[in-house]
């Protein structure tokens, strides 16, 4: 089965540096796997300023 040079490189790199995978998982939990706060989301939508159709047009 074909594997690109990048896939070979990453496989070798992760084999030599196993701590990278654990750090990656930890950082993913920090930024992506979070519960959504619906109240915060509602406030962000309410505070949004509508954008003009053509932003570079002087007023």
TrEMBL record:
The protein's superkingdom reads: Bacteria
**Protein name (Swiss-Prot/TrEMBL):** DUF3460 family protein
Organism listed in the record: Pseudogulbenkiania subflava DSM 22618
């Amino acid at each position: 089965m074909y594997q690109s040079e990048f896939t070979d490189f990453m496989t070798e790199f992760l084999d030599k540096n196993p701590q990278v995978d654990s750090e990656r998982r930890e950082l993913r939990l920090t930024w992506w796997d979070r519960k959504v706060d619906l109240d915060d989301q509602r406030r962000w939508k309410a505070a949004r300023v509508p954008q003009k159709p053509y932003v570079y047009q002087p007023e």
